[in-house]
Amino acid sequence: MIFAALPQAAGAKTICTIVLDAGSSDVLHEKGECDRRATPASTFKVALALIGFDAGYLKDAQSPVLPFKEGYVDWAGKEWRQDTTPARWMRYSVVWYSQQIAKALGAQRISGDLQKIGFGNADISGDKGYNNGLERAWIASSLEISPREQVVYLSRMLRYELPVSAEAVDLTKSIVQIDQGQGGWTVHGKTGLAFPRNADRSFNRSRGFGWYVGWAEKGGRQVVFARLIQDEKRQKTTPSTRAKASLLKDLDGLTR
């Protein structure tokens, strides 16, 4: 099988790979624990974009422009320390921009909309006792989603079946990054990276979760996919980078 040759095979586990036909929702490939929920990490940005555009807080790919301010998280360095648009937010996975959207919309709106679209447990409460849901619920905290739930809501999005406006769907689709997969597939996807917490609340960097979710098109076909891996020891590259690279490599074979 393909998985024996994956770059993350040594020191990492593929929790699930699942591919659906976007139109019929027929399962084309499924391997692993695809009902196992985990932190969505930055894959949450796709759902948050849908909610933000539907609410009117996000206007289009280039607005609103929000300025970086001292005190905002800047884990990714200079790419996060500058004015950011929705398109730039998605491209560079800017966490503080997500936090500003979340604070503008509020926990009640976000949780309610996540329930409506079927995004995992829709729990925006954050770390128990820390009142930080609008800052990190989706980053190794209260919000969790399974790979199967990822592909189901994404396939519904592509069919315009979610309870959000068609314009919100189109605008969300317009800012998701495009890559080329092997076999001629045009792939629209979002990575996600998060490290679970140790007992002292430090990050366990040897057990990182890596997601790659999205949809792909080729010759009139459209499929939806999710791959979730978890490291078993610390690696030189992030699990999200490896999840994406391996999925782009494998996708053509998974759709046959």
TrEMBL record:
<dbReference type="InterPro" id="IPR001460">
    <property type="entry name" value="PCN-bd_Tpept"/>
</dbReference>
<dbReference type="GO" id="GO:0017001">
    <property type="term" value="P:antibiotic catabolic process"/>
</dbReference>
<dbReference type="InterPro" id="IPR002137">
    <property type="entry name" value="Beta-lactam_class-D_AS"/>
</dbReference>
<feature type="modified residue" description="N6-carboxylysine">
    <location>
        <position position="45"/>
    </location>
</feature>
<feature type="domain" description="Penicillin-binding protein transpeptidase">
    <location>
        <begin position="33"/>
        <end position="238"/>
    </location>
</feature>
<dbReference type="GO" id="GO:0008800">
    <property type="term" value="F:beta-lactamase activity"/>
</dbReference>
<keyword id="KW-0378">Hydrolase</keyword>
<comment type="similarity">
    <text>Belongs to the class-D beta-lactamase family.</text>
</comment>
<feature type="active site" description="Acyl-ester intermediate">
    <location>
        <position position="42"/>
    </location>
</feature>
<keyword id="KW-0732">Signal</keyword>
<keyword id="KW-0046">Antibiotic resistance</keyword>
<dbReference type="Pfam" id="PF00905">
    <property type="entry name" value="Transpeptidase"/>
</dbReference>
<dbReference type="InterPro" id="IPR012338">
    <property type="entry name" value="Beta-lactam/transpept-like"/>
</dbReference>
<dbReference type="GO" id="GO:0008658">
    <property type="term" value="F:penicillin binding"/>
</dbReference>
<dbReference type="GO" id="GO:0046677">
    <property type="term" value="P:response to antibiotic"/>
</dbReference>
<protein>
    <recommendedName>
        <fullName>Beta-lactamase</fullName>
        <ecNumber>3.5.2.6</ecNumber>
    </recommendedName>
</protein>
